[in-house]
Structures are given as C-alpha cells and as structure tokens.
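Hallway conversation turned thread

IA: we were arguing at lunch whether anyone had actually written out Mono-oxygenase ydhR end to end. Turns out nobody had. So, for the record, here is the sequence (103 residues) and right after it the structure tokens. Reply here if something looks off.
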Amino acid sequence: MAVILQVDFPSQGPFGAEMSQAYQQLAESINQEDGLLWKIWTENSAYQEAGGIYLFDSQANAEKYLHMHTARLQSFGIDHIRGKIFEVNQALSAINQADFLNI
C-alpha cells in the first residue's frame, strides 16, 4: 500500500532558484531510493522551513528513507526534524484529481 511521507525542518535557506541549483544533485540521487514514486520539495522562506512530501510504495520503504534522511539532516546540524507517514486513501484521492498515483 502506498504511503505519504511528510518531512519538515527549520532551514535558513537557500530558497527558490538558489535552492534548485544547490540541491539538484541531491534531488537526482533521491530518485534512486527504494520504493520512491515521487517527491514534492517544500519551502517557506518567511517561516524559515523546508522539507518535502514523498510518495513511497510501502511503509517499510518510507520508514527506511525517513531514518536515513533524518540522520543526514542531523549530520548537517539540523534539529527539530518532523517526519510523519500516512496511508493513502486512493479512492478519495482519485476524486480530487490524484489519479496520477497509478499505484
């Protein structure tokens, strides 16, 4: 069953185009993670937060990624990392144009 992983954490940037340039290689490497179907990068410069919304093919793969990603962020000195995993209700999501899930 597909799951959503929601991650956010304090960030002093970069944001916007600078973020896109700075993290392009990281974004490309995330495509290699087990079970990743897609990721949406999130940022809020006004509140100094960043993170992402991920779709994984299973709870186990989402948990594995969250553990690795939390450790990576902590190695950069980032604290207060929040990660939550949610099951996807495919039937209701499809009503709201989430038919791209194809899972």
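OS: looked through it. The chain has one domain: 3-98.
IA: good, adding that to the notes. The chain has four helices and four strands.
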